[in-house]
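Field log, afternoon session.

UNIT: design team B
ACTIVITY: writing a sequence onto a fixed backbone
BACKBONE:
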């Protein structure tokens, strides 16, 4: 019998955008002091559970990059050099980026707010041309021509740009026996979990990913979860934090 493949998912620690209650998206913001502590504690949990990553990946946004580095160090694996990719970036929230959630709900109404935030297919209003142009000059997106840079994304769009990286880069590492840490964001991880667990749109809408809480998946040879939903290393803390995520903006 083959051994299961171990994939650990970690949403970055609290960022300045989280603390403001804002739609951050592709805006690059640092961790708060609390977020740094969360990242360190995530690594301590990995170490305590005998999960020492041998490969690591993060988005190329600073809050995920920093979380990944802190967690690896606390897990006793500062020697692991993470790979960074825009394919793990947070969902691009278009013109909503930088706006506080409460303000968006007040301006557009609760139905639109819930649809943009939780549904699989809804796309927020696009980023204006002059703001979208700034990404074209960013070296982190140098492999994307201007026409492919998103101006807004649905969760389905996030899943579509994430899956090639999962199967082209992460899957071979898992099949080679590596313990893989993926540090990303609320919606990129929600899209990944939705795929792994084969969630329905309604189930996806109800799934909340808390900051700084490692979520471990043991996968079979076909990269299907042995336990649907995986397991949080701190289940009680994750449950309370996920409830808080669900209530954001209200």
């Amino acid at each position: 019998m083959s051994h299961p493949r171990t994939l650990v998912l970690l949403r970055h620690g609290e960022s300045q955008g989280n603390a403001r209650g804002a739609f951050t998206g592709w805006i690059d913001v640092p961790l708060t002091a609390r977020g740094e502590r969360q990242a360190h504690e995530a690594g301590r949990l990995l170490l305590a559970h005998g999960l020492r990553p041998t490969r690591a990946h993060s988005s190329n946004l600073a809050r995920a990059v920093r979380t990944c580095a802190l967690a690896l160090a606390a897990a006793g694996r500062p020697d692991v050099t993470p790979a960074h990719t825009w394919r793990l970036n947070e969902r691009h929230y278009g013109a909503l980026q930088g706006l506080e959630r409460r303000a968006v709900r007040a301006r557009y109404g609760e139905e639109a707010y819930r649809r943009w935030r939780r549904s699989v297919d809804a796309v927020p209003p696009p980023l204006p041309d002059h703001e979208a142009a700034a990404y074209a000059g960013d070296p982190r997106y140098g492999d994307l021509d201007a026409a492919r840079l998103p101006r807004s994304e649905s969760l389905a769009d996030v899943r579509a740009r994430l899956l090639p990286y999962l199967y082209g880069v992460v899957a071979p590492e898992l099949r080679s026996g590596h313990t893989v840490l993926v540090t990303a964001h609320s919606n990129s991880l929600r899209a990944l979990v939705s795929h792994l667990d084969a969630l329905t749109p309604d189930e996806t809408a109800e799934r909340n990913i808390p900051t700084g809480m490692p979520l471990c998946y043991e996968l079979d040879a076909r990269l299907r979860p042995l336990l649907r939903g995986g397991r949080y290393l701190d289940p009680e803390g994750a449950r309370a934090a996920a409830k808080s995520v669900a209530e954001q903006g209200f």
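LOG NOTE: The beta strands are 5-11, 55-58, 83-84, 180-184, 215-219, 231-232.
NEXT ACTIVITY: expression trials, pending approval
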